[in-house]
Design goal:
By secondary structure, this protein is α+β, with helices and mostly antiparallel strands. The chain has 6 helices and 13 strands. A hairpin with a 5-residue loop joins β10 and β11.
């Protein structure tokens, strides 16, 4: 087959006017999503409520680890349906191939700031289960070069290949044209730097942003040669479900969201 990219991550944005949803929204999101990489940042006019399941990277001393996520399957309404959805994801050749490709991309990115021969895949294609969906994740680690600063790490890894596609630079240029908007906080990085220099950053997916009187978030998926339009679109809605359900709890305060297929 012919084409310019191995994978392109395309995203849809949900947005609406709103008034004053911030800390109570985050608490509801925290209770609903129970995500491992949550964050709340309040700049008054700009408020970020992140319920991300995806860790971008963390550093501990001179060891850096990255955790790309690919593949999404919704939780089932029954135990048996949940098991079937999990098995379907586990046996999906497409999702496994996507994660293998992005794992290799991140392995190469880490090689730019790590000692030669130190980069290794710790875990390859492991299932993780969250409140609303199952995911596939890998873990890659390496030993940082003595001269590698945090800026160097971001220069090598940012943005994460799991939310761009491959080849990274070329696909990002095309995505800008296709999406027709800046992603902003979404798919960037939110994290912390400890006093001893250790770091931990997420990728702000499943993240609601209030900018003055507007609230918005986005979801997306990786498009490859054998992608089916309807299933990719449904995956986007699956990823949005927890956020929309959380907003619905606020009744008349919560905005109605519009999206385009």
């Amino acid at each position: 087959s012919q084409g310019d990219y191995y994978e392109l991550n395309y995203t849809l944005e949900f947005s609406s006017p709103c008034q004053g949803l911030s800390w109570p929204l985050y608490l509801a999101l925290r209770e609903k999503m129970k995500a491992p990489m949550m964050a709340y940042i309040d700049f008054s006019d700009l408020v970020i409520c992140s319920a991300s399941p995806e860790r971008f990277f963390r550093t501990c001393g001179d060891v850096i680890s990255a955790f790309p996520v690919k593949g999404t399957s919704p939780r089932g309404q029954t135990q048996e349906e949940d098991r079937q959805n999990l098995l379907r994801l586990e046996n999906s050749e497409k999702d496994r191939a996507e994660l293998l490709m992005i794992t290799d991309l991140l392995r190469n990115d880490l090689g730019r700031v790590c000692r030669v021969g130190s980069v290794r895949v710790e875990t390859l294609v492991q299932l993780q289960t969250f409140s609303h969906y199952h995911h596939l994740v890998s873990e890659i680690s390496g030993t940082l070069l003595p001269e590698a600063s945090l800026l160097d790490v971001f220069g090598a890894l940012f943005p994460c290949g799991s939310i761009t596609g491959a080849p990274k630079i070329k696909v990002m240029q095309h995505t800008d044209t296709l999406e027709g908007r800046a992603r902003g906080v979404y798919t960037g990085a939110i994290g912390m730097i400890s006093n001893n220099g250790d770091t931990d950053f997420n990728i702000p997916i499943r993240t609601i942003v209030r900018n003055k009187n507007e609230i918005h978030f986005a979801t997306g998926g990786g498009i490859v040669a054998d992608s089916a339009c309807d299933s990719e679109y449904q995956e986007c809605l699956t990823k949005a479900s927890g956020l929309l359900e959380t907003l619905a709890v606020f009744g008349s305060t919560a905005p109605a969201f519009a999206h385009q297929k």
